[in-house]
Amino acid sequence: MGNNNNNKGKDCHRKGNGDREKEKNPEEKREKEKQKDERIENVGQVTLDENKEHHKIHLISIIGEIEGHDNLGSSSKTTKYEHILPQLAAIEDSEDIDGVLILLNTMGGDVEAGLAIAEMIASISKPTVSLVLGGSHSIGVPIAVSTDYSYIVPTGTMVIHPVRLSGMVIGVQQTFDYFKQIQNRITGFVCSHCKIAKPRLEELMMETGMLTKDVGTVLVGREAVEEGIICEVGGIRDAIAMLHDMVGRKKTDTK
Fold first, then answer.
1. pLDDT-based confidence at 64, cuts 50/70/90?
2. Pick from 53, 140, 148, 226: CA 20 to 30 A from residue 128's CA?
């Protein structure tokens, strides 16, 4: 009889621990939400893991101006490549992350930093999808096409223009050769990751009749799809659905 009473006591003790664990869950949930909010606020990134497919999707936002080696003003919205590159490496190394969603609303920015980000995204083994929202201009174009599949919202825009440098420029042939080299790197990357042909891309870059104070072309929504730069017109629902489908197919293939 004594042993039975002791066993009952142990059962009650275990039940009490379970109750205490349940009591902790709301606090843990609040702490998790707090950390998620802070991460979004600090670096514009979050892991989407509350879906019915139980896939872990890492979201990265490319917003404002893509910052290179020089810091921009504190009043400017920027994407810092020193934040993005290590995170992409961590995603590639992680067994927990199943796919990557890139949201773009950028005016462009530093060519070297933008190409570095685009090359990193293109070389990730996890499924990747990009979604152009307000715009993905200039060096944002290579980033938009660097993913496995790309979307643009109907009102989203992409500005295609030739390479420009600010500050003092030495007016010699070597400078123009350098400009050409940079432009070939950009067009080469873009054309190798989407359906547009290089002559057509360069034609859009050199268009003189559209921008009042510049050379280039503005593509809106479906126009970017028709030119072969973006895969499809769609929104966040389409982008996430495509990513889940790609992750599911990859998991099936690896079994």
1. confident
2. 226
